[in-house]
Amino acid sequence: MSESPANIEKLIGVEVSNSALKAICINRNGILTDIYQVATDKNQETFAQLVNFINELKNKFGGFDQIGIAVPGLVHAQTKRVAFSTYIPEHEQIDFLTELETAVRLKITIENDANAAAYGEFLQGAGRDSKSMFYATLGTGIGGALILNGKIWRGVSGFAGEFGHIAINSDGVKLEDVASTANIVRRTRSRFHQDQTSSLSKLTEEEIRLSNVVRAAQKEDDFARMMLERTGTYIGTALAGVINLLNIEKIVVGGEILQAGYLVLDAIIHRARELAFPPSFEATEIVEGELGENAAAVGVALLLVEP
Questions:
Q1: Which end of the chain is more exposed for a tag (fewer CB within 10 A), N or C?
Q2: Superfamily (CATH H level) for 129-289
C-alpha cells in the first residue's frame, strides 16, 4: 500500500456476510474505535446496498479516502475481480471492484473474507505471536487461509485455503458438507427423535438450531454433545492433513461453531493428534480465535496498510 499507518488517521474495514454489512473503524494506533452494522435486504442487490452503506459511512466516520471490503467469495489474485460468490450474484455481470470504486469515489481493497479474518487474527488476535499460521473459519460455510512469514498466501489464482472442500473420507464427502452450521443442524434434525432422553427430542424439527444444540450440550445432554464432538472430529480430520502438509506453527479456529467452545475445540485437537504425524502435531498449536465476529473487518482494514 502507498501510505504508512502514521499517515492515515483511520482505517475502515467492511465485511459483507449473508445477513449483514458490518464496518469497523481503527485509529492510527491500531485501536478499534467504532462498529456500525446494518442488516442486508435479500430482495435488493448486494452492490446497491453496499454503495448506500459506504455512503453512510462517509457521514458516520468521515475523513477517509480508501476502504477495505471482505467478501464471502473467491477474489482473483491478479485482477481482484470477484470470481465466485453466492451472496454477490451480480459479480458475474459487472467488474464489481471497479464499478464500486466509481460509485463511491474511493480507493477500495477487496479480499476474500477468510483471508481477511486470518490477517486480522495474525496481527491483532490469536496469531499475533507467530510468524506463520493457518486460519479455519467455521460457520455458514467453511473456509481457510494461510499466512506465511506475515503475508497471505493466495495461491496462483487467489483461491488458496479452501479448507471446506477437503474430502474427509474415501467417498469424497467434503468437510463443509458435514461440519458447516447448516449441516450440523441438518444432521441433528435427521436423528434427534431417535434419542428420547435428549432435551432436543421435545422440540420440533424447525426449532432445532445450532444455539439449541450448544445449550443442550452445555447442560450435559449426551446426544447434543455427541453431535458437536462428531463435528469437531470431522474438522480435526481435515486439520491433520493441514498439519502434515505444512508443519505450521499455529492453527487459529474461528467462526460461529466456536460458540460451542471446548466441546468442539477439544474434539478437533483430539482427532488432529490421532491422525497427524506426531512430530508435526507437537510443533503446532491449535487455538480459538480472539477477534470473533470482527476478525474479517479488522483484517481487511489492516490490509490497507500492509507493508
A1: C
A2: ATPase, nucleotide binding domain (3.30.420.40)
